[in-house]
Amino acid sequence: MQKEFSIYLDLVRFVAAVMVLLSHSNVRKVIAEPLSLSDQGHAAVIVFFILSGYVISYITAEREKTPIDYWSSRLSRFYSLVIPVVLLTPLLDVIGESIAPQFYVGKTTNDLAWVRILSSLTYLNEVWHISIMSFSNVPFWSLCYEMWYYVLFAVVAFTRGRTRYALLAAVALVVGPKILMLAPIWMFGVVLHRSNTLARLSEASCWALFLGSVALYLAFDHYQMTAYGDGLMRNLVGEKWFRTLTFSQHVIGDYPLALIIAANFVGFRGIAHRFGWLLLPAEAPIRWVAGLTFSLYIMHQPLLQFFAALIRGDNSTPVFYFQVLACTFVTIAVVGRFTEQKRHVLKRWIKHALKRLDAWWQQRQAASVAAAPDSVR
To answer: What is the pLDDT of residues 128-154, one digit of tens each?
Structure first.
């Protein structure tokens, strides 16, 4: 991958995580005053989905070419942070709500704790028509979508023939329609990486795509096309089913939005070398903050509310908000250093376990073949 384009994707990834944080700052009343760009949170998640598809396609083409390599990397990346976050979030919520309940009332759910913990650890929070909130951690829903996209991609990448179709059908039966509705958006990223036609576009075409995508996104946002799509979906399925769709209810607006984002990535990839003077000197700080993006995304919600309760300030003042932000970012940087950035230890353990499981399976298959009658063999 071209270095300038890689830096750009890292920058976009970090900015998208900040947009989600700003959105939840207002939704959870950590700050009363509406923040600039705080209405871009959902669009940022669509950015993450496309980025994820692109990156997964890239790394499987370059280095994770076996199921063991693929799953040891995917599982270690998620679980190195998911396990501590899922287990600590209810504790933070209980402490925070006991100190300052105004930051929690109507904004979190803590009953059936074991159901929430187990569904979060198995990424089953959003299958079919259920939607189980991971305590105060609203952003966790997207991980439940993304993990199943990893599964679907692995089935396509590492299986063939009837086995592939049977496994795809099995996964579809497990996850249900909500997650599948947004799966093609994740696949846009795969197509962007693997399409030779898109990779051979002229520089003029790439400039047109890049600049056009910016203009289209501004128009999309100005004319509130997500809300317009929501209205169409309500009329199509009715209010009850619209609410049941939860995080997939914006699907009508999400597809044109995803095309705009994809156009931006395709365009910038072809002109990234023109921005080397800007991106290359900033590579080190961009890589550093991008390395904390996953931690920032999955930890910010419970930490924002916890520190808001702990500081117990006035959420109408910027000073209070910046205090909460500072505590949140410092905690994320520290925790990220000992979880996500140390995930290679967990990766080695998972890889060893998968190899042993694979060896056991191969031995079992060999034993079954050896025990079969000659007429069957």
So the answer is: 999 999 999 999 999 999 999 999 999
For the chain, where are the alpha helices, taking DSSP H only? 3-27, 41-62, 67-99, 113-121, 140-158, 161-175, 177-194, 196-199, 203-222, 225-237, 239-244, 251-271, 276-279, 283-290, 293-311, 318-338, 343-371
Would you tell me the crossing angle of helices 251-271 and 177-194 to the nearest 10 degrees? 20
What are the tokens at 352?
A: 């060893």
CB crowding 166-186: b at 16 or more within 10 Å, else e: ebeeebeeebeebbbbbbebb
Q: What's the CA gap between 44 and 171, in Å, rounded?
A: 26
Rg of the chain taking only CA atoms, in angstroms: 22
Q: DSSP letter for 165, please.
A: H
What integer pLDDT is reported at residue 25 of this predicted model?
85
Taking alpha carbons only, the member of 367, 371, 293, 372 closest to residue 332 is: 293
Residue owning tokens 């004319």? 223
Express as a percent the part of the chain with pLDDT over 90.
Answer: 78
The whole-number pLDDT of residue 341 equals 66
Cα 308 to its chain centre, rounded Å, is 25
CA quadruple 168, 57, 10, 205: dihedral sign: negative
Which of these, 340, 252, 235, lies nearest to 297 by C-alpha position?
340
Per-residue pLDDT reduced to its tens digit, 221-235: 999 999 999 999 999
pLDDT greater than 60 at residue 369? yes
